[in-house]
Specification:
Helix content: 40-55%
Shape: globular
Structural class: alpha+beta
CATH topology: Sufe protein. Chain: A
Number of helices: 4
Number of strands: 4
CATH architecture: Alpha-Beta Complex
Bound molecules: zinc ion
Number of domains: 1
Strand content: 15-25%
Distance between the termini: 31 Å
Largest sheet: 4 strands, mixed
């Protein structure tokens, strides 16, 4: 990765940390789940409004480090308007990207910002920060009211 690209990613990440998108509670959500990452102290609650099997609205609340907050923010932007099966497929790709387990990942349309986290695989302790919101969302989809912990 070039230094310039690194710098660009850092800027985008910090922007989402300082001004997280969709950072609010949904009153009477269809699904909601809470996630903790005790290792870092990250805490997130994800709220979902569904329209059939389409993610109509997805928001989050919570506090955490720059990576966990930016990841939750970018996740909500990326998943709005997607079907549940698309959302699951995107999570799988994202997981492969941050763990570095899947080699080159082909990101689809509207998923470019996820690339920001491609450097995370060099810092294994940070993988949990980057995936917390996603695991929490997955739990919300499995269960109407779930609590997950990365430990
Ligand atoms: Zn963290």
């Amino acid at each position: 990765m070039t230094t310039e690209l690194n710098e660009l990613y850092r800027e985008l990440l910090l922007d989402h940390y300082r001004r997280p998108r969709n950072h609010r509670r949904i009153e009477q959500p269809d699904r909601q789940a809470e996630g903790y990452n005790p290792l870092c102290g990250d805490h997130v609650t994800v709220f979902l409004k569904l329209d059939g099997d389409v993610v109509k609205e997805v928001t989050f609340e919570g506090s955490g480090c720059a990576i966990s907050t930016a990841s939750a923010s970018i996740m909500t932007e990326t998943l709005k308007g997607r079907t549940l099966s698309e959302a699951k497929a995107i999570f799988k790709k994202f997981h492969g990207l941050v763990t570095g387990e899947s080699g080159e990942i082909e990101l689809g349309p509207g998923m470019g910002k996820l690339e920001v986290f491609s450097g995370v695989c060099q810092y294994p302790a940070r993988v949990k920060c980057a995936t917390l919101a996603w695991h929490t969302l997955a739990a919300a989809l499995e269960n109407a009211d779930a609590v997950v912990s990365t430990e």
